[in-house]
Write a structure and sequence with these properties.
16 helices; alpha/beta; 542 residues; elongated; 55% helix; 6-stranded antiparallel beta sheet
Length: 542
């Protein structure tokens, strides 16, 4: 339900807020007071065009905001959705849904599910032929629902199998091309004969090789210092302690400690000799290590950032190669399964086609009956169902559904979008909406001067139909018809006044007495006793 609409700087509207109610909301007022601007603002916030000329004179932007109470909607916060659109004279657009910026296209696609505007020149959901099959199936209801559900299960399976076949290289050239690539990658890794941890070991060895000269130089200095100086000096010191060791236990203890140091240094110098040998190698060995590291680096760059990842990739390549080499057998089974699924789909699609054709006749009769009530006795509505002969399955089977209309005797049936008269279009839409009110999921319907060109019995019929629709959908209607105004659950009077030398649009929610006076004004042009009595009678009949 549209609970609040706020409009700022559009045409003669300065700053206007309107609180709407459930049911049938009727907007009336003098010509030029701004009624159409209100409907136009709703069209703009629903993603429609906005000519910059609509910005109020002297202002550089316009703003439309709407609070929509729709608790079942996934975007609703506390049951409410806040929509806003701000448009500047330089062409900049700011569209938001619950404070989140969206494009105009995103706004339009979202609002199409919430608001349906019926005016002289508007395109509505019912004009979208892609949605006609949905309306027909909704009208059929449970008699097609179970069959369609079974069909959709097969349709999903059908798409799943086709996707598998597509990914299973059904094309021989593509299959061989893929195999060549996989085999090349597999062999490249296999020939490398990688071992976990060898890259770390080679990096350490290569680091030694790169710094070998510095290593050897310093190791030699250390060796000379220990062998030529330290060991001889410690040996001499040991002999001196041996001469005095019997003069007290402390000397025996120090002799033992010094001997341990001597043995440790001897062990250290032996290890040092081994390190000196490790630092001594030829250029061929260095080239081999660098070549091996280059191979590992190249494989890491292509297949993974570690040897473990590369070996894992190798294993996956092996499995994929085996799968593709055996794909002919796999595809044969998939194609057989697809054939069986298509057979079941075709049976169910034909059943849906039969049901749709039968119910199309019933829908035709119901809508044509409504058109007669709306004083369009020569208009003929027709549901046309085309079966796809090429058997291109979609989520609805093989059928395409179109709503066609013929408004005058002797003319051909044509698409709804090609109806010339705005007044006829509005009544046709009203007839369809009346029949499909229970299944139409769009919660808010807006009618802009649907009474254009009609009066008397036709106007009464239009009023009755709109009242019926408003029981299922919140309905907003701008009208000049007393019959329609009399059916309103909430009546609003739109007027204009001059404030500081500027004209402003104003709106007022009428109470019951004010509503009767407004109905009298519409029906008679002026409020007289007779007009008031007539207005009361119309109101009672509502």
């Amino acid at each position: 339900m549209l609970s609040t609409l706020h409009i700022k700087n559009i045409g003669i509207i300065d700053d206007l807020s309107i609180d709407f109610n459930e049911g049938f909301n009727v907007l009336t007022g003098e010509t030029g007071a701004g009624k159409t601007l209100i409907i136009g603002s709703l069209a703009i916030i629903a993603g429609g065009r906005f000519p910059k000329e609509m910005i109020r004179k002297g202002e550089n932007y316009s703003l439309i905001e709407a609070n929509i109470y729709c608790p079942e909607n996934e975007l609703a916060e506390d049951g409410n959705i806040i929509i806003s659109r701000e448009i500047y004279a330089n062409g900049r657009n700011n569209c938001k849904i619950n404070g989140k910026l969206v494009t105009v296209t995103e706004l339009k696609n979202y609002m199409n599910k919430i608001i349906d505007i019926h005016g002289q020149h508007d395109n509505q959901n019912l004009l979208d032929s892609a949605k006609h099959i949905k309306y027909l199936d909704g009208f059929i209801g449970s008699n097609i629902k179970e069959i369609k559900s079974r069909y959709l299960d097969y349709f999903n399976k059908y798409n799943e199998i086709k996707e598998k076949l597509k990914n299973n290289y059904g094309d021989e050239t593509e299959k061989e091309r893929k195999l060549d690539l996989l085999r090349y990658q597999y062999n490249e890794i296999k020939i490398a004969n990688l071992k976990v941890g060898e890259d770390v070991e080679l990096e350490e060895k290569h680091n030694i090789m790169v710094n070998s000269e510095k290593l050897k130089e310093n190791l030699n200095i250390i060796d000379n210092n220990l062998s030529c100086n330290a060991i001889d000096n410690i040996s001499n010191s040991i002999r001196c302690l041996e001469k005095i060791e019997n003069y007290g236990p402390v000397y025996k203890e120090k002799l033992l400690e010094l001997k341990n140091v001597y043995y440790e240094i001897q062990e250290f110098t032996r290890d040092l000799s081994s390190l000196k040998e490790d630092a001594d190698f030829d250029e061929y060995e260095r080239d081999e290590i660098e070549r091996r590291l280059d191979i590992i680096f190249s494989l890491k760059r292509k297949y993974g950032n570690s040897i473990e990842k590369i070996l894992e990739y190798e294993e996956n390549l092996k499995k994929e190669i085996e799968q593709i080499e055996n794909v002919d057998e796999i595809n044969k089974k998939l194609k057989e399964e697809l054939k069986n699924v298509e057979k079941e789909m075709n049976i169910l699609a034909n059943k849906m086609n039969e049901i749709r054709n039968a119910y199309a006749i019933k829908l035709n009769d119901k809508i044509n009956s409504e058109l007669k009530d709306l004083e369009m006795p020569n208009a003929k509505f027709q549901v046309t169902i085309e079966k796809n002969e090429k058997e291109e399955y979609n989520s609805n089977g093989l059928d395409k559904v179109y709503f066609l209309i013929c408004t005058n005797v002797g003319e051909e049936y044509n698409e709804l979008t090609k109806i010339a008269s705005g007044g006829e279009m509005s009544r046709i839409m009203l007839a369809i909406k009346t029949v499909l009110a229970d299944i139409d999921e769009v919660p808010i319907l807006i009618f802009d001067e649907i009474d254009t060109g009609i009066s008397g019995k036709a106007a009464n019929a239009v009023a009755e139909k709109m009242k019926i629709i408003s029981k299922k959908h919140q309905t907003l209607c701008i009208t000049h018809s007393a019959s329609i105004a009399a059916k309103g659950d909430s009546n609003y009077y739109i007027y204009k006044k001059v404030v500081q030398d500027k004209t402003q649009t104003c709106i007022k929610l009428l109470d019951e007495q004010e509503t009767i006076k407004e109905i009298a004004r519409i029906s008679n042009g002026e409020i007289t006793e007779i007009a008031l009595e007539n207005a009361k009678e119309l109101r009672k009949a509502s």
